[in-house]
Amino acid sequence: MAKIVRLTPQIANMIAAGEVVERPGSVAKELIENAIDAGADRITVEMKNGGVSYLRVTDNGCGIEPEDVRTAFLRHATSKIRSATDLDAIMTLGFRGEALAAVAAVARVDMITRTRFAASGVQITLEGGNEIDFTDTGCPVGTTIVVRDLFFNVPARMKFLKKDATEGAYVEAALVHAAISRPDLSFCLIKDGREVLNTPGDGSLTSAIYAVYGRDLAEGMISTVGSFHDITVEGCISPPSVTRASRNLQCFFVNGRFVRAKVLTAALDEAYRNRLMHGRMAVCFLNIRVSPEMVDVNVHPTKMEIKFSREKDVFRAVYNTVLSALEADDHISGKTPPEQPVRYEPMAAPSSAQPVSEPARTPVQTSQEMYLQSAVKVASERIHYRSEPAKPMALGDLLKDLGSLYEKAPIVDAQDDPLAVSVSSAAEPADIKEEKSQNTLQNIPPVRVLGELFSTYIIAQEQNGVWLIDKHAAHERMIFNELVKRKDKQDGQLLLYPVTVVLSRPEKQACIDNLPTFADAGFLVEDIGGQSLLVRQIPLYLAEEDVPAVLSEMAGKLASGGESGNMVYEELLKSVSCKAAIKAGRSSDGFELQQLAEKVLAMPDVRQCPHGRPVAVFVSRRELEKRFKRIV
Ligand code: ADP
Ligand code: MG
Q: What is the pTM of this model?
C-alpha cells in the first residue's frame, strides 16, 4: 500500500469543483447568486463561446474588503453563515462557501472588487487555484469576476462540455431564472459582444417576463396569489389559450430559487385539466414560499430537483391558487389580462426562525380579490365581460324558449347572403341597448346572431365586436360541464331494443373491467359472450345511433391502457358530450343558433371544448376598424 497523505487544498478544491462546477452555466448560477446576495440591483453577465472561454459577472453590490478577498477563495469560506443553527439555510440555499474556491480551482479567474468605504479596489488573479497577482486598482463599487478557460487544467471534464451554443443556453437559463425570480433587480446578458437580454428591474414580474420572453407572452399572463396554511404561492400563469409543446416555460421557484419538483408540475396539470389540448403545456412563473425545513435537505444543493416534506399541502397550495386564477379569468372572457403587475418583495432567504408568510389566507378569496379589481376595470371597458358568475343551468333549458327578446332579431344565413354581415353590423349599438333594457332577463348578453359560416361557426354581433363561435365545440363543452356537475350517477334511458356492439377481445375485456364506471356514466352494458357486448341503457343525452361509436371509441382507449378510475369516467363523459352536441357542418336553424350563442356567452366557463379547443373567438370592432384603416 502506498503511504496515506492528506490531499493538498488544490486537489480538494478540484474534487469539490466536480460537484459544484459542472459547466459554464453552473458557474454563472453561482456567481449570479453571489451578486444577488451582495445586494446588487444591477447584474451583467457577459459570455464568449458559450461561457467556456470567457464568462464575466459584474455587480454593483457591496464588494469585498481588500483583506477578505483572498479568504473568499478559500474552501468553506463564507460570510453568510456563522453558526450551525443556520445549517438548514445552508443546505436549502446552497451557501456552502465553496463556489469561488471550486471555480478558481478549474479556471483562470480575475476578481476586481471595491466596497463603498474603500478609496480604491483590488484585483486578484488566480490560475488553477494559485494566486498569480494581487494589486490595488481603481474600479467602481461592486464586484466583477471574470472566469476564463474553464477546465483548462481538467481535460477530462472539458470533454464533457457540449457545443458552445448549448453551453451558452445553460448560461442564459441561469440568468433568466434569476431575472424572473427577482424582477426587482436588473439583469443584462451580453453574448459574443451583443446585448441579448436586459430586464428593467422595476419590480414587476410582467416587465421581467416581457423583457425575457416578449410582449405576447407577458401581456397574456394571469397574475395570481394564494396560500394554503403557511405555504404561499405567487406569480403568474398562462390562460388556456397560451400553451407550449414542452414544460420549458413552467418555472417554479421555492423561496426565490429555481427548482424542479414533480409535485409542482402535477398540481399545475391538475388545475388545467380539461382546459388544454392534448400534448400542450401551460406556462407559469410561480414562486412558492415555504419554511426551509420543508425542503428535503438530502438533495444535492446545487441540483434543481427538490422534494418537500409536506407534499400534499404544497400540492393544494399550487392547485388552489392556479385553479382560482383560471376560474376568475373565465369570468373576464379570457381577454385582457389583469394589468396590475405582480409586485415582488425581494425574496430574501427566509430564516428558519421566522415564519415565512403571513397567517394563512383563503387562496380563493385572495385571488378573487385581485380579480375583482381587474374585472371591474375590464368590465368598464368591455361589454363582453359578464360580471354575473355563470349560473348552473340545466341542459334542458338549452332548448327552452328564452322569451320574446330575440325573436325579432334578424337571422340571416351568411353563407347564403354574403351581404348579411355588413348590413346587420350597421345596426346602431343604441338599438341593442334599448332592447336589453326592455328585457326582463337582465343577464342575457345583447348578442345578435347574424348567421353561420360554413355551417360551423356562429357569427354573433355585440356592441363592441363580433364573436365567432364553434357551435359544436361550444355545445359539447356545455353538455360536458353539465354532466360533470352531477355528483351521482348519470341518468340513463333504457333502450327498447338493446344495441349489440362488436369489439376486439382486448377491447371487450377492457370494457368489462370498467363496467361499474360505465354504469356511473349511464351505460348498462352486459357481456353476452363472444366478442359482443349488449347495451341496455344509455346516457340521457346520447342518441341510440351514436352508441356503437362511443363504445368502440372508449374500448379502444381503454385497451391501449393508461386510463383508470376517474379518467375513464371523464373520458366517457367527453365522448358522450361530443356525440350529443350539434354537429359542425350540419346547418342549424336561426333560433337554435341564437339560443346557443346567448348561452355560451353567458357562461364564462365555456371557453374551451373538453378537448381543449377554443369555443369562441372575439374580434373587436376596433380591430376591424384598424384593419380597414378607419382608425390608426
Ligand atoms: P458562499 O456564497 O456560499 O458564501 P462563495 O464561495 O460563493 O461562498 O463566496 C464566498 C464569499 O465571498 C461569500 O460569502 C461572500 O462574502 C464573498 N463574495 C462572493 N461573491 C461576492 C460578490 N459578488 N460580492 C460580494 N461578496 C462576494
Ligand atoms: Mg456563493
A: 0.60
